[in-house]
Design brief:
about 20% strand; globular; about 200 residues
């Protein structure tokens, strides 16, 4: 379990790409909730065979999906910048759409690592975890951002901590396979050890 022990030493999200590369968990990566693409760029630095970015880039009536209050024009502009940044990298594919629908495009046990930074409500985060967990291979990692007790800029209560607790309980995943970073806006990581 040296990978798990090493995972438990990660203190910042910025340490995750080197951890993934060091342990060969960088072949197929995915980020759900790309927004500006900064974390996607960090994941690209690991030189994956395939890196998937997923974001709907849409104004919706759901405050969990629209936690910044940005206009559609602003979101379209952000998408354009992100798309152009990665368009010449054949290993990076950007999917614009709903997380749960795009997850079904990929086979079971496909990804080494999936990072969720999308809907921060308890229900939304839990739904994303349930959609993407089956796509993570045995020995791979499902992770995400904003493992904090806070509200978004527009007042949406973050429910990521409760979603992670519920996910662990419902799937009977021992808590020792969970790790969170030690920074202001923490990331959470769950190592998949089952063979389902």
């Amino acid at each position: 379990m040296s990978v798990l022990n090493d995972m438990k030493k990660i203190e910042r999200r910025s340490d995750i790409p080197s951890f993934l590369a060091r342990h060969g968990l960088n072949r197929r990566l995915c980020e759900v909730g790309v927004r500006f693409g900064f974390n996607l760029q960090a994941l690209a630095s690991t030189k994956p065979e395939l890196l998937i970015g997923v974001d709907h880039y849409r104004v919706t009536d759901d405050p969990g999906q629209q936690d910044t209050g940005m206009s559609q024009n602003k979101l379209d502009g952000i998408y354009k910048v992100v798309f152009e940044r990665f368009m010449l990298d054949p290993s990076v594919k950007i999917f614009r759409g709903q997380s749960n629908i795009i997850a079904k495009v990929f086979p079971l046990f496909f990804f080494d690592y999936v990072y969720i930074d999308a809907d921060h409500t308890e229900e939304g985060a839990y739904a994303d975890m349930c959609s993407w967990w089956p796509r993570v291979r045995q020995g791979g990692i499902l992770a995400g951002h904003d493992y904090i007790d806070a509200d978004s800029r527009v007042g949406t209560e973050f429910g990521v901590i409760n979603a992670v607790k519920r996910f662990l309980k419902d799937l009977k995943i021992p808590v020792e396979f969970l790790h969170s970073t030690k920074e202001g806006y923490c990331s959470w990581m769950i190592m998949r050890i089952d063979g389902e």
